Amino acid sequence: MAAMLLTACEKGLDEGIADVAPAGQVMNSVLQVRTRSGGSAGEEATVAYPIAVYVFAGEECKAVQTIGDEGQTLNIGLTEGTYSVYAVGGASSSDYVLPTTDDAAATSAIALREGHSHGDLMTAQATATLTDGGTNTVRCPLLSTFVNPVHEMAK
Questions:
Q1: For the chain, how big is the Rg over CA atoms in Å?
Q2: The model's pTM
Q3: Angle formed at CA 106 by CA 105 and CA 111, multiple of 5 degrees
Q4: C-alpha neighbours within 13 Å on the C-beta side of residue 14
Q5: Residues 12, 137 contacting (CB under 8 angstroms)
């Protein structure tokens, strides 16, 4: 299991967003997720794409989405509340077995598909609080947590 990094959030407002949640609550708040690599200014590492993003309210996974490249920002419609955001970079569904919205937990593991090789994996974690009708932007600096497994380096 990879360690996660807690990051700060910045808040802005966005108008005109309204969907209805299953429990009748209005999904008129937006969680905007952006990523960048962790590192000092001018020394940022390359980010491993795609990035699987998991959003939890308590123990319940509310959304799973993918950031395909550095130009993409996710906008996830949610109800007002506090959310935990986990990002796993470099874990494509073609190479790894990834949890779905139905079976994801904050402690879920990912598994390498048979016949595939490990690549660089990067992780990040953040907490965001959404207000009714607002947008909260979360920037998750990804840190490399797994580079070339020992069994491959020994070959």
A1: 16
A2: 0.73
A3: 70
A4: 17
A5: yes
